[in-house]
Amino acid sequence: MKKRFIILFTLVSFFSCDSYLDEVPDNRQEVKTLDDVSELLVSAYSRATYNFVEAKSDNATYIIQNTQYPWMTENYTYVPVVSSEQQDTPTYFWDNTYNAIAHANQALVGLSEIDGGDDDFRNSLKGEALVSRAYNHFMLANIFALHYSEANKSALGIPYITAPETELSVSYERGGTLEETYNLIEKDLLEGLPLISDDYYVGTGKYHFNKSAAYAFASRFYLFKGDYVKCIEYSNKLLGGGRSEYKLYT
């Protein structure tokens, strides 16, 4: 009787272990379906603000009534921000934006591994991931590299990351030239933009790249690049469908 009890207990233990091991050990997202990819892409947008650049411009002034944090003074006086890595600091923006890029890259890998599903939905998700990756690199380039121009094309760009992260903390190698960075941004943008469809995010709020937002980004990208013909082309694609949809501020 005792031996039977021990055997029964052992079998129950094995079944319990199997059930435990079948469960995700933490709150990570398993990417098994196209809907999972869609949820993953919510994190492909940087949550970091870039208000810290205002302190380096004429948009900031010293107000004695407000609390003066060390990182504010560091920004205002053009010295490296070393006192904080929290929101509104260069380090936070860098880390959070590359984290968003990592999510976009993971989404692209997930799409390549998932079989079945609606092909139009798959293409739209791929387009969103590519445009999001392009936009995040664009923002990083305009904060941490020189402004794009013919004179600055050979200046140092930023690391352009196209693969998911496999480590918690990553130190990137130096990027290529600024021209190479912009070429990679343009490649992702032009590949992703035609794939984006507005059919799948109706009523979900303004946190996904839809067609209009992608056109707006393309217009801005070419404006910064100095290609004014393409800037006007994408501006017309954005606004030509109905100016009444947009508020024009002067």
UniProtKB/TrEMBL annotation:
Gene3D superfamilies: 1.25.40.390. Transmembrane segments: none annotated. Residues 20-223 form the SusD-like N-terminal domain. Pfam families: SusD-like_3. It comes from the Bacteria. This is Putative outer membrane protein. The lineage of its organism: Bacteria, Pseudomonadati, Bacteroidota, Flavobacteriia, Flavobacteriales.
